From TrEMBL:
Annotated Gene Ontology cellular component terms: Golgi membrane
Record protein name field: Glycosyltransferase
Catalytic activity, EC: 2.4.2.-
Top enzyme class: transferase
Chain ranges passing through the membrane: 16-34
Boundaries of every Nucleotide-diphospho-sugar transferase domain copy: 178-399
Entry-linked SUPFAM superfamilies: Nucleotide-diphospho-sugar transferases
Native source species: Microthlaspi erraticum
PANTHER family recorded: ARABINOSYLTRANSFERASE RRA3
Family named by the database record: Belongs to the glycosyltransferase 77 family.
Cell compartments where the protein resides: Golgi apparatus membrane
GO biological process: cell wall organization; root hair cell development
GO molecular function: glycosyltransferase activity
PROSITE patterns reported in the protein's UniProt record: PROKAR_LIPOPROTEIN
Amino acid sequence: MAGRRDRSQQLRGSRIAIAILVGIIIGCVCAVLFPNGFFKSSSSLTVNERVQVGSSPCESPARIQMLKSDFASISEKNAELKKQVRELTEKLRLAEQGTDNARKQVLALGTQIKAGPFGTVKSLRTNPTILPDESVNPRLAKILEEIAVDKEVIVALANANVKAMLEVQIASVKRLSITNYLVVALDDYIVNFCKSNDVAYYKRDPDEDVDAVGKTGGNHAVSGLKFRVLREFLQLGYGVLLSDVDIVFLQNPFSHLYRDSDVESMSDGHNNMTAYGFNDVSDDPGMGWARYAHTMRIWVFNSGFFYLRPTVPSIELLDRVADRLSKAKLWDQAVFNEELFYPSHPDYTGLHASKRVMDMYEFMNSKVLFKTVRKNQELKKVKPVIVHVNYHPDKLNRMLAVVEFYVNGKQDALDSFPDGSE
């Protein structure tokens, strides 16, 4: 009985072994004939699954390890390629965005140089001028060619509403024998006025947006038009000294410009701090130890008298201001200064223009004159280059008084006026 049981167990074990062997053989055959399985399509398998399916028990461990190694290497290379694609895409975007800027920088800076010793390094202050394009406005180009001196011109915009002030300004210009002075006539009345007074003028081609304001607008409205009008002057390659009509010329201003910046403007400031900038400390007692915060302040550039060199930043400034003024009812002087001074920050790219403040006693606003200069015996002896009656509404009378004081020598001509407006 015991021997029979042993033979039965041996037979049973042999059958199991045979079954296992048959199963392995069938598995190998199936692996060869159906490497992707019975039900899954090859397109739905992941790379990992394909390696596992192909790695049947018939394949050696070395082969499986090699496939795994190849897969890992390919995955790593794929990740690196994706990274390179992202980096190249970003570089391409930045290159397309800054292609023109890069070109301008190359033109401005030239070849790379090494920094010199301490205290000798000076940054570039003056941008290159643009290449003139006479096709922009051949008619204006011909006028400027005739009247400009050293490719520079004074430009004043005027309509019939400001004729009296324009008359005073023209008289002051003729008194100084300034020949490169041009009136942009905004209506036919000023055209005829300029013709009868032998003054160079330019009347733009019809433009509904400009003409609507130019023919009927007051001093501020007309002032806002200059940012659209001046663009062509710069494109033609001319330096422009823009002058509002409430200005009296007492010396030739071109002898007092530095020309080292894109924008050179007179200031609304009335002393050294306000005109040229100062460190203003803000106090917040609630902050305790950190209650004091330092800020930088400067009074605005006056948008009624400034010099523009024909550079890319100058043209961009005009475009920015004109664009904003066309979309909202804003004061042109506020927009002019915001575009000049606001730095780049998230969602905003600032204007990269160089700027200079004019000497406040040479290019004098009426607050400086009536609050300070006329009361100081030493300052009264110094003749300014211009006086801009920008702080006072009684402009014409004060302009006439300026002429009486500085030109005709009437020492009490300024005395009857209050410091401010009544």
